[in-house]
Amino acid sequence: MKTAFIVRETHGHWIGDFAAAVRASGWRAELVTEPLDDAERAALSPLVDGFVVVEDVRDVAAVADALRDRDPAAVLTAAEGIIATTALIAERLGVARCPASVFTLAHNKFAVREKLAEAGLPGPRAALFADPAEAAAIAARVGLPAIVKPVNGAASTLVRTASTVDELVAAYEVLATRLPENPDARYHRPLPGGIDPLRVFLVESLLDGPEYAVDVLVRDGAAETVTVVGKPLIDERKFELGMVCPPFGLSGERAGAIRSAASAAVLALGLEETVAHVEVIDDTERGPVVVEVNAGRPAGGAQPALLKLATGIDVTAEAVSLALGTPPPARGTGLPVPVGYLVVYAEGAGRLVRVEGTGEVADLPEVLDVVTIVSPGQVLTDDQEIYAVNVLVAGFADADDLAALHAEAAKLVRFELEES
Fold it and tell me: Cα torsion for 179, 181, 182, 184, to the nearest 10°?
Protein backbone atom coordinates (compact mmCIF):
# COMPACT_ATOMS: atom_id res chain seq x y z
CA MET A 1 0.00 0.00 0.00
CA LYS A 2 1.34 3.44 -0.91
CA THR A 3 2.01 5.94 1.86
CA ALA A 4 1.51 9.70 1.77
CA PHE A 5 3.31 11.75 4.40
CA ILE A 6 1.42 14.80 5.65
CA VAL A 7 3.69 17.46 7.10
CA ARG A 8 2.30 19.63 9.86
CA GLU A 9 3.82 22.63 11.57
CA THR A 10 1.25 23.62 14.20
CA HIS A 11 -2.38 22.96 15.09
CA GLY A 12 -4.51 22.56 11.98
CA HIS A 13 -8.12 21.53 11.46
CA TRP A 14 -7.11 20.55 7.92
CA ILE A 15 -4.96 17.62 9.06
CA GLY A 16 -7.92 15.31 9.69
CA ASP A 17 -9.50 16.26 6.37
CA PHE A 18 -6.29 15.64 4.43
CA ALA A 19 -5.69 12.32 6.16
CA ALA A 20 -9.26 11.20 5.44
CA ALA A 21 -8.85 12.08 1.77
CA VAL A 22 -5.56 10.15 1.58
CA ARG A 23 -7.18 7.10 3.17
CA ALA A 24 -10.19 7.39 0.85
CA SER A 25 -7.72 7.02 -2.04
CA GLY A 26 -6.62 3.67 -0.60
CA TRP A 27 -3.29 5.01 0.68
CA ARG A 28 -1.78 5.12 4.17
CA ALA A 29 -1.57 8.55 5.78
CA GLU A 30 1.33 9.22 8.15
CA LEU A 31 1.96 12.50 9.92
CA VAL A 32 5.36 14.21 9.92
CA THR A 33 5.52 16.40 13.00
CA GLU A 34 7.79 17.97 15.55
CA PRO A 35 7.73 16.34 19.03
CA LEU A 36 4.23 15.85 20.40
CA ASP A 37 2.98 15.93 23.94
CA ASP A 38 0.77 13.05 25.10
CA ALA A 39 -2.46 14.99 24.61
CA GLU A 40 -1.59 15.93 21.03
CA ARG A 41 -0.59 12.39 20.15
CA ALA A 42 -3.81 11.02 21.62
CA ALA A 43 -5.89 13.54 19.65
CA LEU A 44 -4.09 12.88 16.35
CA SER A 45 -3.69 9.10 16.58
CA PRO A 46 -7.19 8.23 15.32
CA LEU A 47 -6.68 10.46 12.28
CA VAL A 48 -3.49 8.94 10.86
CA ASP A 49 -1.75 5.60 10.38
CA GLY A 50 1.51 6.57 12.02
CA PHE A 51 3.90 9.34 13.04
CA VAL A 52 7.33 10.45 11.90
CA VAL A 53 8.75 12.77 14.58
CA VAL A 54 11.51 15.20 13.57
CA GLU A 55 13.11 18.09 15.39
CA ASP A 56 12.31 20.68 12.73
CA VAL A 57 9.83 20.17 9.87
CA ARG A 58 11.61 22.99 8.00
CA ASP A 59 14.90 21.08 7.91
CA VAL A 60 14.61 19.77 4.35
CA ALA A 61 17.58 17.41 4.48
CA ALA A 62 16.67 15.93 7.87
CA VAL A 63 13.02 15.34 6.97
CA ALA A 64 13.93 13.83 3.59
CA ASP A 65 16.40 11.50 5.33
CA ALA A 66 13.73 10.49 7.85
CA LEU A 67 11.30 9.56 5.07
CA ARG A 68 13.62 8.06 2.45
CA ASP A 69 13.60 4.51 3.84
CA ARG A 70 9.83 4.57 4.34
CA ASP A 71 9.16 4.46 0.58
CA PRO A 72 7.17 7.73 0.38
CA ALA A 73 4.82 8.03 -2.59
CA ALA A 74 3.81 11.61 -1.79
CA VAL A 75 4.66 14.39 0.65
CA LEU A 76 2.06 17.10 1.13
CA THR A 77 0.80 19.82 3.43
CA ALA A 78 -1.76 22.60 3.65
CA ALA A 79 0.20 24.53 6.30
CA GLU A 80 0.83 27.89 4.64
CA GLY A 81 4.23 28.50 6.19
CA ILE A 82 5.81 25.20 5.07
CA ILE A 83 4.32 24.61 1.60
CA ALA A 84 7.57 25.54 -0.16
CA THR A 85 9.66 23.56 2.34
CA THR A 86 7.44 20.50 1.90
CA ALA A 87 7.78 20.79 -1.89
CA LEU A 88 11.58 20.84 -1.50
CA ILE A 89 11.35 17.65 0.57
CA ALA A 90 9.19 16.03 -2.13
CA GLU A 91 11.74 17.07 -4.76
CA ARG A 92 14.58 15.45 -2.81
CA LEU A 93 12.56 12.25 -2.61
CA GLY A 94 11.56 12.32 -6.28
CA VAL A 95 7.81 12.60 -5.66
CA ALA A 96 7.19 16.31 -6.33
CA ARG A 97 4.19 17.21 -8.49
CA CYS A 98 4.95 20.93 -8.73
CA PRO A 99 8.42 22.55 -8.64
CA ALA A 100 9.29 23.95 -5.22
CA SER A 101 10.62 27.09 -6.92
CA VAL A 102 7.04 27.98 -7.90
CA PHE A 103 5.90 27.89 -4.27
CA THR A 104 8.95 29.88 -3.18
CA LEU A 105 8.03 32.56 -5.72
CA ALA A 106 4.36 32.51 -4.68
CA HIS A 107 5.26 33.23 -1.05
CA ASN A 108 7.00 36.48 -2.03
CA LYS A 109 4.11 38.85 -2.67
CA PHE A 110 6.27 41.44 -4.40
CA ALA A 111 7.74 38.79 -6.72
CA VAL A 112 4.17 37.68 -7.49
CA ARG A 113 3.25 41.27 -8.41
CA GLU A 114 6.23 41.42 -10.79
CA LYS A 115 5.47 38.02 -12.34
CA LEU A 116 1.82 38.85 -12.97
CA ALA A 117 2.77 42.22 -14.46
CA GLU A 118 5.21 40.46 -16.81
CA ALA A 119 2.28 38.32 -17.96
CA GLY A 120 0.28 41.47 -18.74
CA LEU A 121 -2.17 41.01 -15.87
CA PRO A 122 -3.45 44.06 -13.98
CA GLY A 123 -2.38 44.63 -10.41
CA PRO A 124 -2.20 47.29 -7.73
CA ARG A 125 0.78 49.64 -7.79
CA ALA A 126 3.35 48.16 -5.41
CA ALA A 127 6.68 49.00 -3.79
CA LEU A 128 9.01 47.55 -1.17
CA PHE A 129 9.19 49.65 1.99
CA ALA A 130 12.55 49.28 3.77
CA ASP A 131 12.94 52.64 5.51
CA PRO A 132 10.31 54.92 7.06
CA ALA A 133 12.26 57.87 5.61
CA GLU A 134 11.07 56.66 2.18
CA ALA A 135 7.39 56.98 3.13
CA ALA A 136 6.70 60.18 1.16
CA ALA A 137 8.40 58.83 -1.96
CA ILE A 138 6.52 55.54 -1.72
CA ALA A 139 3.23 57.38 -1.22
CA ALA A 140 3.92 59.35 -4.40
CA ARG A 141 4.78 56.16 -6.32
CA VAL A 142 1.98 53.91 -5.06
CA GLY A 143 -0.69 56.42 -4.14
CA LEU A 144 -2.79 56.76 -1.01
CA PRO A 145 -4.72 55.18 0.58
CA ALA A 146 -2.50 52.10 0.53
CA ILE A 147 -2.14 48.71 2.18
CA VAL A 148 1.02 47.83 4.16
CA LYS A 149 1.72 44.13 4.79
CA PRO A 150 4.53 41.62 5.30
CA VAL A 151 6.14 40.59 2.01
CA ASN A 152 5.55 36.93 2.80
CA GLY A 153 2.56 37.19 5.10
CA ALA A 154 -0.55 35.05 5.39
CA ALA A 155 -3.84 35.13 7.31
CA SER A 156 -3.81 38.94 6.99
CA THR A 157 -1.00 39.10 9.55
CA LEU A 158 -0.35 42.74 10.55
CA VAL A 159 -2.04 44.16 7.44
CA ARG A 160 -2.54 47.90 7.87
CA THR A 161 -4.26 50.62 5.83
CA ALA A 162 -2.58 54.03 5.53
CA SER A 163 -4.30 57.16 4.21
CA THR A 164 -1.50 59.65 4.90
CA VAL A 165 2.31 59.66 4.89
CA ASP A 166 2.30 59.78 8.69
CA GLU A 167 0.04 56.70 8.78
CA LEU A 168 2.41 54.98 6.36
CA VAL A 169 5.29 55.63 8.76
CA ALA A 170 3.18 54.42 11.69
CA ALA A 171 2.30 51.23 9.82
CA TYR A 172 5.99 50.58 9.15
CA GLU A 173 6.79 51.02 12.83
CA VAL A 174 3.99 48.67 13.91
CA LEU A 175 5.21 45.92 11.57
CA ALA A 176 8.87 46.48 12.46
CA THR A 177 8.03 46.23 16.17
CA ARG A 178 5.54 43.38 16.22
CA LEU A 179 6.59 41.11 13.38
CA PRO A 180 9.86 40.09 15.13
CA GLU A 181 7.69 38.87 18.04
CA ASN A 182 5.63 36.63 15.74
CA PRO A 183 6.47 32.94 16.33
CA ASP A 184 5.96 32.01 12.65
CA ALA A 185 9.40 30.97 11.40
CA ARG A 186 8.81 32.30 7.89
CA TYR A 187 9.25 35.89 9.09
CA HIS A 188 12.65 35.11 10.59
CA ARG A 189 14.28 33.79 7.41
CA PRO A 190 15.49 35.97 4.53
CA LEU A 191 13.64 35.72 1.22
CA PRO A 192 15.44 35.11 -2.07
CA GLY A 193 17.30 38.25 -3.08
CA GLY A 194 18.29 38.95 0.52
CA ILE A 195 14.96 40.55 1.53
CA ASP A 196 14.60 40.59 5.31
CA PRO A 197 10.84 40.18 5.97
CA LEU A 198 11.28 41.70 9.44
CA ARG A 199 12.27 45.10 8.07
CA VAL A 200 11.20 45.20 4.41
CA PHE A 201 7.45 45.36 3.84
CA LEU A 202 5.11 45.58 0.88
CA VAL A 203 3.01 48.65 0.08
CA GLU A 204 0.15 48.32 -2.42
CA SER A 205 -2.37 50.83 -3.70
CA LEU A 206 -5.89 50.34 -2.37
CA LEU A 207 -8.33 49.03 -4.96
CA ASP A 208 -12.00 50.03 -5.14
CA GLY A 209 -14.53 47.28 -5.65
CA PRO A 210 -16.08 44.12 -4.18
CA GLU A 211 -13.82 41.24 -3.18
CA TYR A 212 -14.19 37.61 -4.20
CA ALA A 213 -12.45 34.30 -3.51
CA VAL A 214 -11.81 31.63 -6.12
CA ASP A 215 -10.26 28.19 -5.61
CA VAL A 216 -8.42 26.99 -8.72
CA LEU A 217 -7.44 23.40 -9.55
CA VAL A 218 -4.52 22.92 -11.95
CA ARG A 219 -4.51 19.51 -13.60
CA ASP A 220 -2.73 18.43 -16.80
CA GLY A 221 -1.78 22.01 -17.64
CA ALA A 222 -5.34 23.36 -17.42
CA ALA A 223 -6.81 25.59 -14.70
CA GLU A 224 -10.34 24.90 -13.45
CA THR A 225 -12.09 27.32 -11.13
CA VAL A 226 -14.40 25.72 -8.58
CA THR A 227 -16.75 28.69 -8.17
CA VAL A 228 -16.78 32.35 -7.12
CA VAL A 229 -17.39 33.21 -3.46
CA GLY A 230 -18.46 36.73 -2.50
CA LYS A 231 -17.27 38.60 0.58
CA PRO A 232 -20.13 40.94 1.45
CA LEU A 233 -19.20 41.26 5.12
CA ILE A 234 -15.84 42.97 5.58
CA ASP A 235 -14.82 45.51 8.22
CA GLU A 236 -11.68 47.52 8.91
CA ARG A 237 -10.37 45.16 11.57
CA LYS A 238 -10.99 41.84 9.84
CA PHE A 239 -10.94 41.29 6.11
CA GLU A 240 -13.76 38.77 6.10
CA LEU A 241 -16.62 38.25 8.49
CA GLY A 242 -18.94 36.43 6.14
CA MET A 243 -18.95 34.92 2.66
CA VAL A 244 -21.70 33.79 0.33
CA CYS A 245 -22.00 31.52 -2.69
CA PRO A 246 -23.21 32.45 -5.21
CA PRO A 247 -22.31 36.11 -4.57
CA PHE A 248 -25.14 38.61 -4.24
CA GLY A 249 -25.90 40.45 -7.47
CA LEU A 250 -22.98 39.06 -9.48
CA SER A 251 -23.80 38.64 -13.17
CA GLY A 252 -22.62 35.65 -15.16
CA GLU A 253 -20.41 37.96 -17.22
CA ARG A 254 -18.63 39.42 -14.17
CA ALA A 255 -18.30 35.96 -12.61
CA GLY A 256 -16.66 34.73 -15.81
CA ALA A 257 -14.21 37.64 -15.80
CA ILE A 258 -13.29 36.94 -12.17
CA ARG A 259 -12.76 33.24 -12.90
CA SER A 260 -10.59 34.10 -15.91
CA ALA A 261 -8.42 36.47 -13.86
CA ALA A 262 -7.85 33.81 -11.19
CA SER A 263 -6.99 31.12 -13.75
CA ALA A 264 -4.63 33.41 -15.67
CA ALA A 265 -2.74 34.35 -12.49
CA VAL A 266 -2.28 30.75 -11.36
CA LEU A 267 -0.99 29.66 -14.77
CA ALA A 268 1.28 32.73 -15.05
CA LEU A 269 2.97 31.72 -11.79
CA GLY A 270 3.71 28.27 -13.19
CA LEU A 271 1.61 26.16 -10.82
CA GLU A 272 1.30 22.50 -11.83
CA GLU A 273 -0.79 19.65 -10.41
CA THR A 274 -1.90 21.59 -7.37
CA VAL A 275 -4.54 23.92 -6.02
CA ALA A 276 -4.52 27.63 -5.24
CA HIS A 277 -6.81 29.90 -3.25
CA VAL A 278 -7.03 33.23 -5.07
CA GLU A 279 -8.42 36.56 -3.88
CA VAL A 280 -9.75 38.97 -6.52
CA ILE A 281 -11.05 42.54 -6.29
CA ASP A 282 -13.30 43.65 -9.15
CA ASP A 283 -11.89 47.18 -9.34
CA THR A 284 -14.16 49.90 -10.71
CA GLU A 285 -11.49 51.03 -13.17
CA ARG A 286 -9.26 48.04 -13.90
CA GLY A 287 -11.77 45.19 -13.64
CA PRO A 288 -10.84 41.94 -11.84
CA VAL A 289 -7.44 42.29 -10.15
CA VAL A 290 -5.78 39.38 -8.37
CA VAL A 291 -4.60 40.59 -4.96
CA GLU A 292 -3.55 37.30 -3.36
CA VAL A 293 -2.48 33.85 -4.57
CA ASN A 294 -2.23 31.23 -1.83
CA ALA A 295 -0.46 28.55 -3.83
CA GLY A 296 -0.52 24.88 -2.89
CA ARG A 297 -3.54 24.85 -0.63
CA PRO A 298 -7.31 25.20 -0.83
CA ALA A 299 -9.33 27.76 1.09
CA GLY A 300 -8.80 27.80 4.85
CA GLY A 301 -11.11 27.30 7.79
CA ALA A 302 -14.45 25.71 6.92
CA GLN A 303 -14.50 27.25 3.44
CA PRO A 304 -14.03 23.81 1.81
CA ALA A 305 -17.32 22.81 3.47
CA LEU A 306 -18.97 25.92 2.00
CA LEU A 307 -17.67 25.06 -1.47
CA LYS A 308 -18.89 21.48 -1.18
CA LEU A 309 -22.34 22.63 -0.09
CA ALA A 310 -22.51 25.13 -2.95
CA THR A 311 -21.03 23.01 -5.76
CA GLY A 312 -20.71 19.38 -4.69
CA ILE A 313 -16.94 19.65 -5.22
CA ASP A 314 -14.72 18.60 -2.31
CA VAL A 315 -11.68 20.89 -2.76
CA THR A 316 -9.75 19.08 -0.02
CA ALA A 317 -10.15 15.74 -1.80
CA GLU A 318 -9.25 17.46 -5.09
CA ALA A 319 -6.09 18.97 -3.57
CA VAL A 320 -5.04 15.60 -2.15
CA SER A 321 -5.67 13.79 -5.46
CA LEU A 322 -3.50 16.36 -7.25
CA ALA A 323 -0.71 15.86 -4.70
CA LEU A 324 -0.97 12.08 -4.96
CA GLY A 325 -1.43 11.93 -8.72
CA THR A 326 -4.59 9.84 -8.34
CA PRO A 327 -7.77 10.20 -10.44
CA PRO A 328 -10.03 13.13 -9.52
CA PRO A 329 -12.55 12.32 -6.78
CA ALA A 330 -16.23 11.90 -7.54
CA ARG A 331 -18.27 15.09 -7.48
CA GLY A 332 -21.76 15.67 -6.18
CA THR A 333 -24.39 18.36 -6.68
CA GLY A 334 -24.57 21.61 -4.77
CA LEU A 335 -27.56 22.97 -2.89
CA PRO A 336 -30.09 24.92 -4.99
CA VAL A 337 -30.07 27.88 -2.56
CA PRO A 338 -27.35 30.37 -1.56
CA VAL A 339 -25.12 29.22 1.29
CA GLY A 340 -23.07 31.39 3.58
CA TYR A 341 -20.04 31.12 5.80
CA LEU A 342 -19.64 33.27 8.92
CA VAL A 343 -16.36 33.74 10.79
CA VAL A 344 -16.32 34.50 14.51
CA TYR A 345 -13.01 35.77 15.88
CA ALA A 346 -11.78 35.85 19.45
CA GLU A 347 -11.48 39.30 20.95
CA GLY A 348 -8.05 40.09 22.39
CA ALA A 349 -4.99 37.89 22.61
CA GLY A 350 -3.86 35.05 24.83
CA ARG A 351 -3.90 31.29 25.29
CA LEU A 352 -7.29 29.72 24.65
CA VAL A 353 -8.86 28.00 27.66
CA ARG A 354 -12.27 27.16 26.19
CA VAL A 355 -14.90 28.15 23.65
CA GLU A 356 -18.52 28.30 24.78
CA GLY A 357 -21.83 29.00 23.07
CA THR A 358 -21.30 27.03 19.87
CA GLY A 359 -24.21 24.74 20.77
CA GLU A 360 -26.50 27.76 21.02
CA VAL A 361 -25.31 28.92 17.60
CA ALA A 362 -25.99 25.45 16.16
CA ASP A 363 -29.60 25.72 17.37
CA LEU A 364 -30.30 28.80 15.24
CA PRO A 365 -32.72 27.84 12.44
CA GLU A 366 -30.49 29.09 9.61
CA VAL A 367 -27.39 27.23 10.81
CA LEU A 368 -26.29 24.11 8.92
CA ASP A 369 -23.10 23.41 10.85
CA VAL A 370 -20.68 24.96 13.34
CA VAL A 371 -16.98 24.15 13.04
CA THR A 372 -14.57 25.24 15.77
CA ILE A 373 -11.09 25.60 14.27
CA VAL A 374 -9.14 26.57 17.39
CA SER A 375 -8.41 24.28 20.33
CA PRO A 376 -7.55 24.79 24.02
CA GLY A 377 -3.91 25.71 24.56
CA GLN A 378 -3.62 27.51 21.23
CA VAL A 379 -2.28 31.07 21.37
CA LEU A 380 -4.61 33.56 19.68
CA THR A 381 -3.57 37.04 18.59
CA ASP A 382 -5.12 40.12 17.02
CA ASP A 383 -2.13 40.39 14.68
CA GLN A 384 -3.69 37.97 12.21
CA GLU A 385 -7.01 36.51 11.14
CA ILE A 386 -7.65 33.30 13.07
CA TYR A 387 -10.91 31.71 11.99
CA ALA A 388 -11.85 30.64 15.50
CA VAL A 389 -15.45 29.51 14.96
CA ASN A 390 -16.97 28.95 11.53
CA VAL A 391 -20.71 28.88 10.93
CA LEU A 392 -22.30 27.51 7.75
CA VAL A 393 -25.74 28.97 7.08
CA ALA A 394 -28.60 28.99 4.56
CA GLY A 395 -32.09 30.48 4.42
CA PHE A 396 -31.01 34.13 4.28
CA ALA A 397 -32.22 36.66 1.71
CA ASP A 398 -29.50 39.27 1.35
CA ALA A 399 -26.36 40.82 2.85
CA ASP A 400 -28.37 42.45 5.64
CA ASP A 401 -29.75 39.03 6.64
CA LEU A 402 -26.24 37.60 6.60
CA ALA A 403 -24.95 40.49 8.73
CA ALA A 404 -27.74 39.96 11.24
CA LEU A 405 -26.88 36.27 11.46
CA HIS A 406 -23.23 37.12 12.04
CA ALA A 407 -24.12 39.57 14.82
CA GLU A 408 -26.31 36.95 16.51
CA ALA A 409 -23.66 34.22 16.28
CA ALA A 410 -20.87 36.53 17.48
CA LYS A 411 -22.99 37.48 20.50
CA LEU A 412 -23.49 33.83 21.47
CA VAL A 413 -19.91 32.58 21.10
CA ARG A 414 -17.68 33.20 24.11
CA PHE A 415 -13.90 32.74 24.28
CA GLU A 416 -12.01 32.36 27.55
CA LEU A 417 -8.38 33.43 27.16
CA GLU A 418 -5.50 33.56 29.61
CA GLU A 419 -2.20 35.38 29.33
CA SER A 420 0.25 33.38 27.24
Answer: 110
